[in-house]
Amino acid sequence: MKTSQLDFRELLSFNPQGGVIRFLGQRAYLVDATAQGLQRKEFIDAFGPEMVRTIVTRSAYAHGWRVAETVKTELPEVWAEAKEGKLGPMLCALYGFGEIVSSRRTDGLGDEPLVETVLKDSFEAEQHLMLSGGSDEAVCWRYTAFASGYVSRVQGREVYFIEDSCRAKGDDYCRIKGRYLEQWGDEIKPYLPYYQTKNVESICAELRRKLQATEKRLKHYQRDMAFLHNECEEGNCYPVSRSSVMQKVLDFAWLLAEVDSSVLITGESGVGKERMALQIHSRSPRSNKPFLAVNCGALSETLLDSELFGHAKGAFTGADRDRIGLFEAAAGGTLFLDEVGEVSPSMQVKLLRALQEREIRRVGESQPRKIDVRIISATNRNLQEAVASGGFRQDLFYRLKVIELHIPPLRERTEDILPLARCILNALTKVMGKNVTGFSHQAADNLLCYEWPGNIRELQNAIEYALVLCRSNQIDAEDLPAEVRNSLFRPTAVSGIRSLEAIERDYILSVLAVQGNNKARTAEKLEISLATLYRKLREYGMMDR
Question: For 384-411, what is each residue's pLDDT tens digit?
């Protein structure tokens, strides 16, 4: 599970009838920003800005510290990314401090700050401007202190943030910079009295003890935890394109929608070939005309002949009236031929003639009828091999495959698995009348680790299976089918297993070698900072290379 896969809706848990709301497993209550702004103004008017800032700073620091502690204990799979600085900005956005414009992270040991984050639409600056007007000083006290507490806990060292730009004092954005205490020098001294670190640490320790006790008492409340963002309408779970590989497929598909060429969609069973064909049709100039589909592999030759071309009255026993076929019924629209690789040789001849001449003859008739349809076909077979072996006509193959669109299997685009799963879950819960809103950490990991040989169709079946067994508001690993449940690797106590550090070392040095010892490109490939790469190389004694 990655930070980028966290989903706000599954971090939030609440009873629809009201009462208890929980976010990140902690009990929460809703209060609008204006109410908070009014409260802060009243406190300042009554007690003065210095005292109020101290109280806000201490409580926000403790809040940030607690959130980091919760992430470590409840979301251990993203703790490593939290230490790399990938989670903090997202949490600030999820808690509603404002929209993160940019966030930069270094090792914090040089002149550059450890963290520099730019925020727009800060709720604190907004409320201050609305209720008190402009300010000579930065006013995002809660945001700055929350970041200080959170990053201090994550880093295991004292880290403090200072806001050097703020909307309330006329700047375009609010910007905070965080450094280790010893890196700040004298610049941090005026701000330290607001924190009184020793008192805050004792408060945090007490809060942790109370939190643990509360968790035991409220064990029956379960957080909804799964992953980020992909809003879908009911039943519309396709296409999902979090992965770059699928996005390229969709970009190509939308180009194909603008032309009228025949398209051959290839891919394994269950990847969504018919849904892709429908998407192409719905974006094409033919979208206001019918989209009709037929599974060529599911019908006998006689039935398929009648289904595609229609028949005249009396053409065969039981043909008591004229019947138009799909080629005519789809006039002006799109005809989708699924499993086209399964059609018989004689049917291939009829299809070829229909595509070449743009006309068909109903079964039992000699009169040709003009047709106006776009053909989109699909197969999970390798038709080129079938052509080479004589099982499929080469001329028909090239008629169908004016343009080929290949849909990759789920195992090659794992970034799409969880968004698809959430989308399918949303649709099925409405159909089945179940109040299930997400997946547990373990269930999500199972979904990610399974290879899905049946692709999206198998994923949908697995989630429907899990919904039948699920007895809470969250699908757990035990609810999933056995083959999915057993997909996670479980290490055994055997000798000779290499340490994680050794594997990491070999991997980093291999990437460095592939990149021709170019450290900047290596850091980019590894998705780590250049400073982190240099630190690793120093640990390996490789800085002379």
Answer: 999 999 999 999 999 999 999 999 999 9
Task: Determine the angle formed by the axes of helices 123-132 and 141-155, rounding to 10 degrees.
Answer: 160
Q: What is the pLDDT of residues 307-353, one digit of tens each?
A: 999 888 877 777 778 888 999 999 999 999 999 999 999 999 999 99
Round to whole Å and give the CA distance between 323 and 329.
10
How many angstroms separate the CA atoms of 356 and 57, rounded? 76
Token pair of 109 as six digits = 């040991």
pTM of the predicted structure, to 2 decimals:
0.54
Residues 274 and 189 in one domain: no
Q: Residue 512: which domain range?
A: 500-539
Report the CATH number at residue 316.
Answer: 3.40.50.300
Structure tokens at 291: 């989209």
> Residues 491, 497: contact at Cβ < 8 Å?
yes
Q: Across the strands, what pairs with 177? A: 116, 162
Residue ending a domain, choose from 381, 410, 439: 410
- Could you read off the pLDDT of 177-198 as tens digits, one per residue? 999 999 999 999 999 988 875 4
Euclidean distance between CA atoms 242 and 414, whole angstroms: 9
Residue 422 and residue 424: Cα distance in Å, rounded? Answer: 5
Task: In whole angstroms, give the CA distance from residue 374 to residue 467.
Answer: 39
Pairwise CA distance, residues 319 & 363, whole Å: 10
Same domain for 429 and 352? no
**Is the same domain home to 527 and 438?**
no
Tens digit of each residue's pLDDT (9 = 90 or more) over 119-161: 999 999 999 999 889 999 999 999 999 999 999 999 999 999 9
Is it the case that residue 229 has pLDDT exceeding 70? no
Strand order of the β-sheet with 21-23 is 12-14, 21-23, 26-28
Q: Kindly report the number of other CB atoms within 10 A of residue 99's CB atom.
A: 13
406 falls within a domain: yes
Total of domains in the chain? 4
In angstroms, the CA 202 to CA 220 distance is 29
Kindly state whether residues 509 and 439 are assigned to the same domain. Answer: no
